[in-house]
């Protein structure tokens, strides 16, 4: 992209009434956490297609995450999943990450892969199983402390498959009791991000099925508990940006797990199937960031934990992560180009078509010159995908990781 392409773009945007200095500063400030599990061989319940060069150890996952950060400048932290990323020395894990130029992000306790948890973890009917699950949650708080992480990301597979299988209200009480014990163990600066999912692996009921349940629980626990919106965890047709706006307004939007979905929890590359949805989510966030009259909303928007939660099964993992980060940047950039004055005027005049056009017009802008300019000004490759292709990294990891060590 040439300088003149950006100069032309900037002139156009100024004419549209957009403050480009602010847009660039906000784009630079966008940080997106990548998931350690996105670098290892992980597939679907049907098949995991082994990828030559996929990370086999925690160290290799860190290396891949660091590579994504080097090329994008936008991913300084990597989320970990315990026990997938179990190690004897978490201080060393943090030091290893640091030496690669990144840090440890959200700690995700895994309570869904052990036989004991077949009928639930924190909502299991046997107190011993619940105890074990809570101990794991408490261990994860220690791990967060040891790694310098300030976020615990909670997702529970807990639920039932058949009517009558469990006492729904009793399980609700156990969920609250377990999370309260964990909440009490948090350090003051730590955040508990509560994820919900309406189905899968439980199909009759999930103990935390939707944002309302997660929000209610967060409210009961206290201000360090917030809701995590995984974009793949809603029924078809759900208006996710509405949920986002609502949670922002209540000061309880903690973060996102970004991915794309078409039919279920597909975990595909964010922004690939429905970029407009992602743009509309960001438009609510930008509006909240701008809301200087409402400090709670502004503060909440300013501390959202943006995280990717994807499982790349048929695509090469590191470039898939780079593409995901770029897709998020693209939609945020577009949302920053909404002319809010024009929108407010149209709303005030009750002009439905003009209001809709004010939003859509931003989505239809080509932000490639802007993103190239922002990256180049930060000393980054204008096109991180292309930079990855020519870096030789893919070839290096294929030859370096040819032995059969499994990361999980
Ligand atoms: C579950 O579908 C989920 O979205 C949770 O965030 C898990 O931690 C993650 O995927 C990985 O299985
Ligand atoms: Mn998730
Ligand atoms: Mn999911």
SSE map:
Blueprint: H1 3-15, H2 20-29, E1 34-35, H3 58-72, E2 77-82, H4 90-99, E3 103-109, H5 127-147, E4 151-154, E5 159-160, H6 168-185, E6 191-195, E7 205-206, H7 211-221, E8 225-230, H8 240-249, E9 253-258, H9 275-290, H10 295-302, E10 305-308, H11 317-335, H12 340-348, H13 352-363, H14 368-377, H15 384-391, H16 393-400
Helix pairs in contact: 1-14, 3-11, 5-6, 8-9, 9-10, 9-11, 11-15, 12-13
Bound molecules: alpha-D-psicofuranose (PSV) and manganese (II) ion (MN) (2 copies).
Organism: Paenibacillus rhizovicinus
InterPro entries: L-rhamnose_isomerase, Rhamnose_iso-rel, Xyl_isomerase-like_sf, Xyl_isomerase-like_TIM-brl
Domain Xylose isomerase-like TIM barrel: 90-265
In brief:
With 408 residues, the chain is α/β, with parallel strands linked by helices.
